[in-house]
Write a sequence for this structure.
């Protein structure tokens, strides 16, 4: 079974609208409209506001964020390389940044079901000089900096469509709020708003809907399709302190899946723990949430978690395609694409936040120059691509261009190849490894893949939690009468419904009597569904999770 | 003489049950203060209130009824004036109920006495001669222990917490006519709450049904049970039955429905999916009625009854009916 | 119509409550702060009254730390005209102390209506509104779930146990809002933009000690282990007895 056969197409007719299309309530004119209040979008806003001020011209900058408050839809490990923050805030010291603590000790283990083997830390995974942080806290801190510079941060306003004028992106239309299940306005209805801007910066994060729409609409190619991993993460208050960051490979992942786990202490007794698995896994019954529940039973982690308390749960996809999945251009007439939305993630070092911030800084500089020169044409904004291509962002990604791709053949072959690539600085296996999109990866139904059948939920025991409990701990309190934001494809079989139910970490999908049941309010916007299943589209502002320290 | 004032409540000339709780609380404070402190139960009305003569049973040394023409229904300003006049005659503590009326009256009394109010108190102690109160904050997720230093100290007691304890005292009745106007705020009437209008998120008692009810029509017995509680109960539902179209969305209790924390939650024929538990586990007391003794709902329930709900619920209706007379 | 709305910045209702190092206050690490939901009703009511009157001013007033400016901005984004922050280090535990500061600010302001939420979802005090009314010598109706104003007379409905009380008073008056009085609006984009430019006056105030002293903030008692009372209808008398005598909820 190939998931792509059951996927609805990207609804371009809804996502790309001609400027002036009917249906907007308020309209507003901005100099720059930034879609997404994450590290990339806020770094762009901050740098841009500063450049404007230095030039004696306060730019009118708006940041649209779909979460109810900044940071609530951000989730990352996170161990952060401070490089880009230092560039963004040259007057601040590392100790001024909202990091939790420097990485002092780290360990990498290969797990088996009952034990672990300590591995030498691969060079790409060495984190000396980096910091443990909560991306939610980082984003809130950046938001305050941006607002102090006069940036308008509009939380609770998801961008639902690109407004276009010929080939030029002219702004965005926001999502309506206050609709009932049937899509009819209720008494608290608020109409979509049109925000027109000279430049629109798409900083939507992983699997951005408008970014996808733009690339499709403009036919922008990439050497390989973008691929994704799904991370499921929990935060625990532990009884026993942890003093090092831990990464693991191996168990409980089946050998045909790429991924691993991480465990970072935000505080000695406040631990972030997660598992990340490539969405090209082969077993249709593989369930990443369940894998995390099993991982927690491993003696390496159990010793910390037992007797502790789960305080938060969340999930998010990560663009893992690397260098070869970068769109040929991340700029166009009136538009630039930043951070995860563009795919700036380096998988071997498990890093993306500093690339996101850095891409925001470059975008701001390119936008500023283009605005000064007059019309921000595609040609002028292509300066952004040139800056990114000449920077450490692309240099880093190029060095590790095939490491993730090597694992499409399975863990062991991939491990050997990746090891050799690391040793030779990417020289060995230097040519491009071709990759298919995740949705085109064949899935084998349970039992077909010998010995690889995913075991079920380990039971509530002391640390295991169900998906609905997880959703509760994500802070998700989406109004349960909003229209479903998920576009389900046609002819969903029992087998596919089962696949969806395992794929989604938030229990959005259930197979009931052979039929697919969709519990749309459970959705935590991780976007795995958009990669492998029903299409995700923006919904009423403030819906989804309310992450605090993810 | 040290006096603790217990501000009682009447409606339609009959004392409300919460009055005996207020007297019980006042008695506890008076005894803890020592020195022969006396409890004066204060009733306000247009004439004597039925049931006032019972207040001695719960520890009132005196029952004083202050009557005025405008005092038949609640008269916020007049009542506050009357209580404050009385308090100024030497009360060290003024105790009200944190009822709908008490929540309105107690702050006025405190303000007129230019002092603070410890509201919605669930426990009182006297330590080293100082009056301390415990009061829930953050929706009951924490308790605050506060010291009351006001002269007099003013507090309101959460209803249904200070169980009336028989503590016979003289209860000498006295009716005093006062010439205090009702004030600028007047009660024009009292409407019965619309039947079924109570929202599950607001109701003090929530009775929820799940798939165990077998069909939509059977929710009638849940409505009957709610009715037996005299308008204080709302009927809720699990997601399963809402999705099946048996009950409206507004009634759904659970993580994607409403989060409720009533005083009493009765789950009937609900197995207890975690998403349902998420919406009701902060309820003060949880009762589960289910035929499956291994149902997860029994893990969060304070009291469980195993068996056929179609037998159990009617028995419960009749028992509650007896209680309410 | 000249309307004052008194609002409070409170911890979100989803907050995981932990006691801070001082043993008597909330540990606010990771806590999201919002405009008290009942105060949202008050702000909405003020806006609707002003819109209906066709003219007037809605002034929001908060007492608290500097961060409460953010909360005032939220109310301004909804449509209030200007804000005043009575800036203090902490919000006092004694509502009367708060009420005195607010009353001092509002005194002589010529308000037609002073609105509050019926209570704050953090301290559950339910008292500042009526106390301010006493201090300003204004009539007051609390916990209003339905309000009509005609010819200078306010008719309000408030929920009481098992019934609804219909209450009347003349304006100017203090009203505290309960759920049901209206459906608060979401700030519009233009409202958010406009809010940044609306006047917000910060006035430092110093407060007296008050008569309520917090000694400790404690966790609620752990939930008791549940029990199966029995099987079938025969268990009902025992259940009702337990609900009455042990749980004390009937």
């Amino acid at each position: 079974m190939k998931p792509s056969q059951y996927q609805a197409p990207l609804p371009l007719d809804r996502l790309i609208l001609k400027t002036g299309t009917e249906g907007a309530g308020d309209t507003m004119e901005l100099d720059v409209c930034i879609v997404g209040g994450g590290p990339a979008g806020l770094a762009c806003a901050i740098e841009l506001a500063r450049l404007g001020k230095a030039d004696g011209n306060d730019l009118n900058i708006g940041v649209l964020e779909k979460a109810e408050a900044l940071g609530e839809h951000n989730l990352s490990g996170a161990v952060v390389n401070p490089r880009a923050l230092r560039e963004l805030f040259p007057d601040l010291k590392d100790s001024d940044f909202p990091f939790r603590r420097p990485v002092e000790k780290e360990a990498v283990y290969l797990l088996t079901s009952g034990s672990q083997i300590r591995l030498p830390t691969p060079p790409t995974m060495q984190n000396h000089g980096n910091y443990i942080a909560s991306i939610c806290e980082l984003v809130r801190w950046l938001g305050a900096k941006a607002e102090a510079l006069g940036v308008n941060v509009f939380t609770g306003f998801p961008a639902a469509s690109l407004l276009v004028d010929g080939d030029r992106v002219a702004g965005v239309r926001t999502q309506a709020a206050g609709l009932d299940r049937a899509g009819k306005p209720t008494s608290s209805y608020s109409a979509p708003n049109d925000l027109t801007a000279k430049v629109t910066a798409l900083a939507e994060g992983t699997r951005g809907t408008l970014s996808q729409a733009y690339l499709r609409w403009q036919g922008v190619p990439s050497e390989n399709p973008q691929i994704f991993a799904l991370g499921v993460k929990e935060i625990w208050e532990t009884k026993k302190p942890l003093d090092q960051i831990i990464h693991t490979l191996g168990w409980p992942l089946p050998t045909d899946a790429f991924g691993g786990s991480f465990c970072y202490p935000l505080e000695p007794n406040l631990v972030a723990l997660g598992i990340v698995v490539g969405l090209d896994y082969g077993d249709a019954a593989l369930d990443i949430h369940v894998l995390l529940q099993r991982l927690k039973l491993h003696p390496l982690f159990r010793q910390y978690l037992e007797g502790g308390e789960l305080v938060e749960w969340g999930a998010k996809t990560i663009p893992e395609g690397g260098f070869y999945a970068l769109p040929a251009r991340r700029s166009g007439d009136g538009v630039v694409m930043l951070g995860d939305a563009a795919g700036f993630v380096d998988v071997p070092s498990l890093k993306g936040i500093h690339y996101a911030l850095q891409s925001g800084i470059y975008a701001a500089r390119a936008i500023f120059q283009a605005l000064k020169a007059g019309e921000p044409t595609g040609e002028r904004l292509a300066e952004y691509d040139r800056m990114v291509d000449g920077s450490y962002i692309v240099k880093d990604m190029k060095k590790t261009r095939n490491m993730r791709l090597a694992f499409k053949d399975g863990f062991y072959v991939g491990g050997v190849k990746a090891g050799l690539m690391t040793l030779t600085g990417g020289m060995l296996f230097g040519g491009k490894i071709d990759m298919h999109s995740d949705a085109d990866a064949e899935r084998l139904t349970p039992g077909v893949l010998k010995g690889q059948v995913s075991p079920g939920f380990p039971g509530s025991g002391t640390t295991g939690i169900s998906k609905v409990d997880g959703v509760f701990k994500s802070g998700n309190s989406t109004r349960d009468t909003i229209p479903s934001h998920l576009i389900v494809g046609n002819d969903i079989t029992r087998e596919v419904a089962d696949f969806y139910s395992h794929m989604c970490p938030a229990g959005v999908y259930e197979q009931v009597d052979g039929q697919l049941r969709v519990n749309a309010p459970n959705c935590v916007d991780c976007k795995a569904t958009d990669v492998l299943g029903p299409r995700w589209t923006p919904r009423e502002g403030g819906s989804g999770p309310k992450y605090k320290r993810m | 003489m040290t006096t603790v004032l217990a501000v009682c409540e009447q409606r339609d000339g009959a004392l409300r049950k919460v009055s005996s709780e207020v007297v019980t609380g006042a008695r506890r404070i008076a005894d803890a203060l020592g020195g022969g402190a006396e409890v004066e139960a204060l009733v306000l009305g247009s004439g004597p209130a039925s049931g006032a003569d019972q207040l001695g049973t719960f520890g009132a040394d005196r029952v004083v009824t202050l009557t005025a023409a405008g005092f038949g229904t609640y008269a916020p300003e007049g009542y506050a004036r009357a209580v404050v006049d009385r308090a100024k005659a030497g009360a060290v503590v003024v105790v009200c109920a944190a009822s709908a009326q008490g929540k309105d009256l107690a702050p006025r009394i405190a303000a007129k006495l230019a002092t603070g109010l410890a509201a919605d108190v669930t426990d009182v102690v006297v330590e080293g001669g100082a009056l301390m109160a415990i009061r829930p904050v953050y929706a009951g997720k924490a308790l605050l222990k506060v010291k009351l230093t006001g002269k007099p100290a003013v507090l309101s007691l959460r209803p249904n917490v200070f169980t009336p304890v028989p503590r016979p005292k003289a209860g000498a009745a006295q009716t005093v006519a006062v010439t205090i106007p009702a004030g600028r705020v007047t009660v024009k009437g009292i409407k019965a709450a619309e039947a079924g209008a109570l929202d599950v998120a607001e109701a003090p008692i929530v009775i929820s049904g799940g798939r165990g009810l077998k069909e939509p029509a059977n929710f009638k017995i849940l409505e009957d049970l709610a009715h037996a509680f005299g308008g204080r109960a709302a009927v809720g539902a699990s997601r399963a039955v809402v999705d099946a179209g048996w009950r409206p969305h507004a009634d759904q209790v659970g993580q994607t429905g409403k989060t409720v924390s009533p005083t009493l939650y009765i789950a009937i024929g609900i197995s207890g999916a975690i998403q349902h538990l998420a919406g009701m586990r902060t309820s003060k007391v949880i009762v589960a009625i289910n035929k499956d003794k291994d149902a997860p709902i029994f893990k969060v329930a304070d009291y469980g009854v195993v068996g056929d709900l179609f037998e159990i619920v009617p028995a419960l209706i009749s028992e509650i009916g007896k209680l309410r007379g | 119509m000249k309307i004052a709305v008194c609002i409070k910045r409170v911890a979100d209702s989803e907050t995981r409550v932990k006691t801070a190092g001082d043993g008597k206050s909330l540990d606010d690490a990771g806590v999201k702060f919002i405009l008290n939901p009942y105060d949202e009703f008050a702000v909405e009511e003020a806006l609707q009254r002003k819109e209906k009157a066709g003219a007037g001013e809605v002034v929001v007033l908060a007492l608290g730390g500097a961060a409460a400016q953010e909360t005032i901005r939220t109310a301004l984004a909804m449509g209030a005209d200007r804000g005043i922050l009575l800036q203090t280090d902490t919000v006092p535990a004694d509502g009367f102390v708060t009420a005195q500061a607010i009353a001092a600010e509002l005194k002589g302001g010529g308000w037609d209506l002073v609105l509050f939420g019926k209570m704050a979802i953090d301290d559950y005090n339910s008292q500042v509104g009526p106390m301010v009314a006493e201090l300003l010598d204004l009539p007051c109706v609390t916990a209003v779930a339905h309000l009509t104003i005609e010819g200078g007379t306010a008719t309000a409905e408030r929920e009481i146990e098992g019934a609804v009380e219909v209450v009347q008073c003349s304006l100017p008056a203090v009203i505290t809002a309960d759920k049901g009085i209206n459906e608060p609006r979401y700030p519009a984009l233009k409202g958010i933009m406009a809010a940044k430019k609306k006047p917000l006056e910060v006035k430092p105030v110093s407060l007296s000690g008050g008569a309520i002293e917090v000694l400790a903030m404690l966790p609620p008692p752990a939930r008791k282990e549940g029990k199966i009372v029995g099987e079938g209808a025969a268990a009902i008398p025992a259940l009702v007895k337990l609900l009455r005598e042990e749980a004390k909820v009937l």
Observations:
- Chain C touches chain B through 82 residues (CB under 8 Å).
- The CA atoms of residues 73 and 224 of chain C lie 44 Å apart.
